[in-house]
Amino acid sequence: MTETQGTFIVTGATGGLGRAIAQQFVQSYHPYTGVFTVRSAHSPNVEPLLDVLRPGGKQYAIRELELGSLLSVRKLAADINGQVVSGALKPIRVLILNAGHQSQLGQKFTKDGYEVTFQVNYLANFLLVLLLLESIDKENGRIIFISSWTHDPASPYNRGLKLKKTMWRPVPDLARPGQTDRKGRDSQAGMRRYAESKLWLMMFMYELQRRINAKQDLSNISVLSVDPGGIFTTDIMRENLWIFRVPLRKAFQVLTPCVQHLFPNGYLRTADKSACDILNACFAEGESTFGKSPKALYINGSAIKQSSLESRDQTKQHSLWEGSLKLVDLDLSKTALV
User: Fold this and answer.
1) How many angstroms separate the CA atoms of 153 and 109, rounded?
2) Is the per-residue pLDDT at 77 higher than 60?
């Protein structure tokens, strides 16, 4: 077994895209220890992940992480930071924030009191990244957010979602929206919540990269967003309407490879293709790709694109940052950004 040179972390590893990333990782030549997070180590979904990891010959560990609990986020971060300090783990070369939530079954709240999609897709990742920043490889580390075209109201793919041109609201209203879904509108409202969460994640990428760049000892760390495209065969659809979970999902399983063959970076993509794109964002350094230390890029599959107009609003980015710090009760002086 090759001596490990760093740590490769993927959240949400039991989902279709998470397992595909694990598959690409074990088949790669990169000499890193893999840390794959799952909601429960006792879930039957863990066994297919282990079937991917066991034959690969790489060191790996399975860790529990429930993004619906900020306490769970803090526990995992403290554990990993402690292992890096002790030398049990090497510094984090790659951190992929893949775990996500999408629901068309109505508005719900976590035990922390925040709207589920907001917390799972954005706020918990905000906290996890800031807590783990001290353990990121200071020379070559990359933080990868899994993005989505849904963050951009101007995208032609979003015509049916009826997104507002401006989705921004005060941060407390994002975390605890007062208006519940109207009866019969759960599906559309759920997709809008998902779209908004991906917008907040994009804003976080820009704000985080600016603050990292301002710290000389952190300035080589890259923060990137990768849009994997439409992968309609993953477990993120488990709380969608039956028509999306069953018949349409089966149809897309047949349709997606054909569409991808004609349009490799188009609307529909297989999990394997998207996982390959994500690993490319993790490790590619050539001038023909993203350069040695790419900064705050929105990568749609294999192509660099411009993110939405609102996502690039620095005033809103700053407001989201400050509001999020209050929601998670985090003192920046206790992070690597001090």
Assistant:
1) 25
2) yes
Stretch 197-213: mean pLDDT: 98
Among residues 90, 198, 273, 295, which one is catalytic? 198
The separation between CA 284 and the C-alpha centre of its own chain, rounded to angstroms, equals 19
Q: Taking the model in full, what pTM does it have?
A: 0.91
Q: How far apart are CA 77 and CA 66, in angstroms?
A: 12
| d(C-alpha 288, C-alpha 275), whole Å | 20
Q: Which of 194, 206, 298, 316 is catalytic?
A: 194
Q: What is the pLDDT of residue 236?
A: 54
d(CA 107, CA 182): 10
Give how far Cα 220 sits from Cα of 128, 138, 190, Å. Answer: 19, 6, 37
The reply to whether 198 belongs to the active site is yes
- Strand ranges, E, within the chain: 7-10, 33-38, 60-64, 92-97, 142-146, 222-227, 297-300, 303-305
Residue 59 DSSP SS3: coil
**In the chain, how long is the greatest CA-to-CA distance?**
56
Annotation marks residue 111 as catalytic? no
Determine the Cα–Cα distance for residues 106 and 188; give it in Å rounded to an integer: 10
* Cα 114 from Cα 3, distance rounded (Å): 42
105 φ, ψ to 5°? -110, 25
Distance, CA of 185 to CA of 89 (rounded, Å): 47
Radius of gyration of the chain (CA): 19
Interval 175-198: pLDDT, tens = 999 866 655 566 678 888 999 999
* Nearest of 227, 187, 240, 221 to residue 293 by alpha carbon: 221
User: Which one, of 226, 206, 231, lies nearest residue 102 by Cα?
Assistant: 231
Beta carbons within 10 angstroms of residue 216's beta carbon: 8
